[in-house]
Design brief:
Layout: H1 3-16, H2 19-26, H3 30-44, E1 49-51, E2 56-58, H4 60-85, E3 92-98, H5 100-117, E4 121-127, E5 141-146, E6 153-161, E7 163-167, H6 169-175, E8 189-192, E9 200-205, E10 208-213, E11 216-220, H7 223-231, E12 236-240, H8 245-249, E13 254-256, E14 265-272, H9 279-308
Parallel strand pairs: 3-4, 3-5, 8-11, 8-12
Antiparallel strand pairs: 1-2, 5-14, 6-14, 7-12, 7-13, 9-10
Helix pairs in contact: 1-3, 1-4, 2-3
Length: 311
């Protein structure tokens, strides 16, 4: 009996929720997964799972066993990766969480470039605009656009962006350009409904942050949809400059209310502090730092050339 394998099966049942899901992942039958689980419980002399026809839940012993065995499995995985690195071969599965807009626009090209240098690293990316608790062990790395960081994580800044206000040339021609933030009350505003600022837009007024509640004309929890709407002349949007870079380069959007923009937001790659940091994490974060430094500088040059009319 391979007890380590049985422990892995148990942990995946807890994480995926069903025997069938684990069977699909392992490419074995559900009966075999059940056999592994029965072997583990028999060896321990205690039930780890409550099984009903509708759901699976942990027993008190199961909760304790999972809490202590999961970190051990992670340590074994890190040990394998550390030894593999001695042969200069970075490999493994890197699980990443990233904001929907930033991840959807920028991360796929970055991952493609990284994997061209490290082809033995598989990357699994989840896009979501929710807080990621890295201590749960579901993700190795989380991309965060913020100026506030939690304790217990390592945060490497990979880029900076400004929170600015944008409109299309067509919208400005039709409705005029607001010169003060108070003028926004007379304009169509496009509101992002999933931000820490909730119903407010944030501006810098005489060196102090000021929140302004806007009356929205169109709202969405997807920044790309809002940028597209703004480019179509539907209204004014506030967004990180990095999210609208392509629209600025093409002249479909222009920045307005420049005197009121707040200080830069930082974009971090965050991961848990631990004794041994797997090479798949360190190489990826180091790569992102260089990659986005080049991307941001190149994008800024293109926008500047467009604004000044330089060839």
């Amino acid at each position: 009996m391979d007890k380590l394998n049985n422990i892995k099966v148990f942990c995946r049942i807890v994480e995926l929720g069903t025997f069938a899901a684990v069977a699909r992942e392992m490419k074995v039958s559900a009966m075999m997964v059940s056999k592994y689980m029965a072997q583990l419980e028999e060896s321990l002399g205690v039930a780890l799972l409550n099984r009903t026809t509708r759901k699976i839940s942990l027993t008190e012993a199961g909760e304790s066993y999972y809490a202590r065995s999961k970190p051990l499995l992670d340590e074994f995985a890190e040990l394998d990766e550390d030894i593999a690195e001695l042969g200069q071969n970075v490999k493994g599965v890197l699980k990443i969480a990233a904001p929907i807009d930033f991840g959807g626009i920028y991360m796929a090209p970055a991952i493609n470039a990284y994997q061209s240098e490290h082809p033995n690293v598989k990357v699994m990316m989840s896009l979501q605009n929710v807080h990621i608790n890295l201590s749960e062990g579901i993700y190795d790395l989380s991309i965060l656009v913020s100026n506030s960081l939690e304790l217990g994580v390592v945060a490497r800044k990979i880029a900076e962006t400004r929170l600015c206000t944008f409109a299309s040339p067509g919208y400005i021609a039709k409705y005029g350009e607001p010169r003060r933030i108070e003028d926004l009350s007379r304009h169509h505003c496009l509101h992002y409904i999933d931000t820490p600022h909730e119903d407010y837009w944030v501006f810098n007024v005489d060196g102090e942050e000021k929140k302004l509640r806007t009356t929205w004309h169109f709202a969405s929890n997807n920044g790309r949809a809002l940028c597209q709407a703004a480019s179509l002349g539907m209204g004014i949007t506030q967004a990180p400059e990095i999210s609208v870079a392509n629209y600025l380069e093409q002249g479909k959007l222009v920045e307005i209310l420049k005197d009121y923009r707040i200080p830069s937001l930082s974009i971090y790659a965050t991961y848990m502090q631990r004794r041994f940091i797997p090479a798949k994490i360190t190489t990826f974060v180091n790569f992102l730092t260089k990659y986005f430094d080049w991307q941001m500088n190149a994008g800024a040059d293109r926008i500047k050339k467009r604004e000044t009319g330089a060839p």
